[in-house]
């Protein structure tokens, strides 16, 4: 090879080496196991391709966590109630106050998701030893269940408190998450009976503690043995103990808005069209009628509770959906008009049978519009009632309400809910 040819060859080799240096270095940085095929280097970017602008060091990417809402705190409360004859005053008062208690619990910040369960107890030899209803976030269902409790039997002491407490601890569907606030309110006037069975009072007090369930106790009357047992379980589970009058010390609080709210509540209960089999429709209509017949104070507290838990306690929030929820697999077409298209003819509410498809849709829309107007009215009245109560609280507070809220506040603070 002559000198001119040799120079041309050396120059070409040098140029090729400089062009391939970057990808060669990239490939050499990737370790390759013996026998493995080396990964291909990414293709070089052509100078004509535009690259995305680099983020300036001072810019911060939006935090993804800010878009995720904090989980709503949960509160589970079970009332374990002595339903013997001597407890009739408190039991009837509790029926009137259940919405008031729930409404006050709903005032927590952040607003908690509340579930309530019920256990009634008497003693061996009475009409029943226990009756229980599982935890539910449908307060209308809770009220309907509470209405089934009637005071009777008893006439002697002690009562089967151990079984009432034991069933509350072991047979209800408590959330097992420790972040959920779990509380029992044990209310009665007689000490635990001792029976040869699996419902020993102290055993179930310990089981409550193991399951992180706080037992708050409310003694009615002045029985010393009851006080000893109630204080034992309250102290063991870090709960509260209080003593109230045998009647429960119920105080009715009337406001200028109660009568009108009762009318609106009754009207809302009538704006329903339940689907399902005949027996299911009958059951739902009975629930609606029970809501329509609430006493003025209870009706007003019910509307207030619905308002708070729906978020309409804030300016601009929607009005509460205050018609009774459907049960038994039924659908209230007024609350869910879109479901009309999929309802079988034999499960249509009687009000829609015999109408054309267009006639059914028109009827549902009519009731839905009427219901919306009523809910707006209810929300406004409830807000005015709450403002009035804030300025006109009675000097004497309802003893039962006050004691329940004392226990709720103490425990809720440990779960990040303030009152």
From TrEMBL:
SMART domains: VWA. CDD domains: vWFA. One of its GO terms (cellular component) is cytoplasm. The lineage of its organism: Bacteria, Pseudomonadati, Myxococcota, Myxococcia, Myxococcales. Residues 1-26 form the signal peptide. InterPro entries: HMCN1-like_VWA (IPR056861), Thr-specific_kinase-like (IPR052969), VWF_A (IPR002035), vWFA_dom_sf (IPR036465). It is found in: Secreted. Keywords: Coiled coil, Secreted, Signal. The keyword Secreted applies. Residues 36-69, 307-327 are annotated as: Disordered. Residues 357-391 form a coiled coil. Residues 76-268 form the VWFA domain. The keyword Signal applies. This is VWA domain-containing protein. It holds the Pfam family VWA_4. GO terms for molecular function: protein serine/threonine kinase activity. Residues 310-327 have a biased composition (Low complexity).
